[in-house]
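User: Please fill in residues for this 555-position structure.
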């Protein structure tokens, strides 16, 4: 909460005095009454029920918030479950803020940030992020548009809420593999060590269940020095195993006070539950998430780490399929790519390669037989070019596998729907159609590079991105923020509340210009009748305002 309400300089705190050992003398504020200067904002809704806040506007446009502790709750009582922390300002400004340790733990000691004495940062003009810095979710606006939703800008703060010598951080990786996992681990360890002087960092072996079922792994810069050159995760990973009570018990018993959780939407949902339990117990533990999904299906953020690497590697498979297809008469190269619910990898790899004749994704329904169907299009392309390349995301066309509908309700340990191999199924359907019905000889080659893509190290672009995500998470945790995910919004690192990351999924909008670019590149049909197109456009009309990254508004 300091970055929302605290002035930018120490001199504004009459109750704080610097001393020679770089620690700020902490003089406890009365928990029943505290005043903070607040600029610009007209309404503040904390929603934590820890304090009741009243905003009083003065004629000088400077405001004061009077915060009084609820008389019905003692300092030892368990806090209530928090609601979203919202700040409203003029011009339709909305800040969806992240929780802070001071929201539920009173009288926390504050320390000077050691970065101000770090030689590596001596050339930086501005050491610390300004307390008022926020990042808009939407940057394409009209002149009369409201300012809209903002997120707190990530970065180092002038005051931190952990003494470096007292920090015991832990890192855990959950879910499937993704390029860049080891880079994130490395940069969290090195960031804590080199920027904040933290010497105690533990790795949790084997995902969430490693908290209570396995021993920890000691991590330091020497241990993690070269791991970014390897794929996978040195900590191991798993799906499921989330037992909130056991996990928080382990955190408490081991004396851990910073938890860095790397994983997808299911993992971040678990991280949110862990944060809630930690807060309920009143523990001084920061919980920070780093979003990981190779499918790029996490909302709000520009992209997830590993996505660029996945698209780059997918092109190699597409290139191989193209070589195979054009080398044989009526050759068909079929490539299955990742994309359980979202077809971003398939779409971007198709656009980048320029060799693909048809791309099928979960968001765009298609059918096989009849006028305008897939079989008709394949036959036309073979007659025109003598070969074709077909890319299909793993989640596409699942509704067509009628003989396997009973499996549609089954889920894995992470809660993901178990999918049938649609590419293998559609390969056989294509062979049967042309050999039995069309009496036409084809040569189909099926390539599945899924696990090859997941297991490779991240490329240069993703390595840099992983560094920014990891360091931003470290800065946020040291500053006392908790219950947040570090993510890129409009090219700026931000702190995003867990609920925004887990409330929905990022999907390709097939009435958007990016999908139109793909259709123009492949010349494939939309597989939609005119009535369906009009219905989709009508459904998207109210939400087709572009966000920061070209995605459409979820509202």
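Assistant: Residues filled in for all 555 positions:
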């Amino acid at each position: 909460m300091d970055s929302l309400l605290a002035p930018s300089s120490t001199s504004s705190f009459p109750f704080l005095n610097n001393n020679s050992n770089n620690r700020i003398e902490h003089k406890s504020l009365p928990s029943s009454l505290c005043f903070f200067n607040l600029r610009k904002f007209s309404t503040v809704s904390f929603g934590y029920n820890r304090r009741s806040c009243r905003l009083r506007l003065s004629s000088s446009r400077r405001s004061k918030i009077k915060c009084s502790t609820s008389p019905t709750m003692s300092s030892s009582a368990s806090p209530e479950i928090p609601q979203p922390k919202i700040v409203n300002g003029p011009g339709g400004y909305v800040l969806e803020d992240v929780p802070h340790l001071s929201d539920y733990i009173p009288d926390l000691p504050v320390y000077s940030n050691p970065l101000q004495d770090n030689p590596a940062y001596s050339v930086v003009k501005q050491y610390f992020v300004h307390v008022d810095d926020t990042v808009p979710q939407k940057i394409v606006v009209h002149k009369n548009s409201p300012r809209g939703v903002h997120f707190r800008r990530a970065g180092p703060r002038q005051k931190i809420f952990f003494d470096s010598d007292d920090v015991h951080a832990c890192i855990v990786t959950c879910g499937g593999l993704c390029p860049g996992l080891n880079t994130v681990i490395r940069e969290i360890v090195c960031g804590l060590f080199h920027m904040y002087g933290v010497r105690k960092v533990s790795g949790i072996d084997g995902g969430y269940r490693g908290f209570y079922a396995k021993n920890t792994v000691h991590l330091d810069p020497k241990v993690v020095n070269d791991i970014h050159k390897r794929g996978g995760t040195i900590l191991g990973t798993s799906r499921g195993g989330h037992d909130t009570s056991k996990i928080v018990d382990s955190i408490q018993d081991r004396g851990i006070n910073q938890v860095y959780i790397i994983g997808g939407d299911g993992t971040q949902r678990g991280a949110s539950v862990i944060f809630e339990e930690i807060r309920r117990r009143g523990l001084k533990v920061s919980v920070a998430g780093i979003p990981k999904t190779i499918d790029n299906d996490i909302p709000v953020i520009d992209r997830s780490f590993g996505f660029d690497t996945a698209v780059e590697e997918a092109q190699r498979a597409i290139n191989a399929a193209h070589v195979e297809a054009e080398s044989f008469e009526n050759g068909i190269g079929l490539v299955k790519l990742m994309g359980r619910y979202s077809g971003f990898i398939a779409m971007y790899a198709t656009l980048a390669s320029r060799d693909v004749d048809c791309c099928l994704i979960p968001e765009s329904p298609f059918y096989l037989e009849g006028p305008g169907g897939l079989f008709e299009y394949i036959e036309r392309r073979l007659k025109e070019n003598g070969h074709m390349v077909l890319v299909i995301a793993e989640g596409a066309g699942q509704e067509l596998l009628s003989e396997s509908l009973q499996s549609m309700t089954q889920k894995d340990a992470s809660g993901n729907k178990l999918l049938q191999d649609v590419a293998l199924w559609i390969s056989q359907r294509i062979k049967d159609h042309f050999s039995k019905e069309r009496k036409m000889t084809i040569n189909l080659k099926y390539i599945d590079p899924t696990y090859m893509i997941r297991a490779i190290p991240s490329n240069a672009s993703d390595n840099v991105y992983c560094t920014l995500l990891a360091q931003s998470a470290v800065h946020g945790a040291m500053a006392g923020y908790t219950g947040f995910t570090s993510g890129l919004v409009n090219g700026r690192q931000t702190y995003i509340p867990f609920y925004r990351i887990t409330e929905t999924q990022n999907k390709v909008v097939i009435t958007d210009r990016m999908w139109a670019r793909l259709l123009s590149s492949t010349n494939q049909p939309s597989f939609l009748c005119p009535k369906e197109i009009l219905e989709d456009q009508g459904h998207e009309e109210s939400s087709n305002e572009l966000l920061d990254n070209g995605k459409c508004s979820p509202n």
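For context: The CA atoms of residues 462 and 553 lie 26 Å apart.
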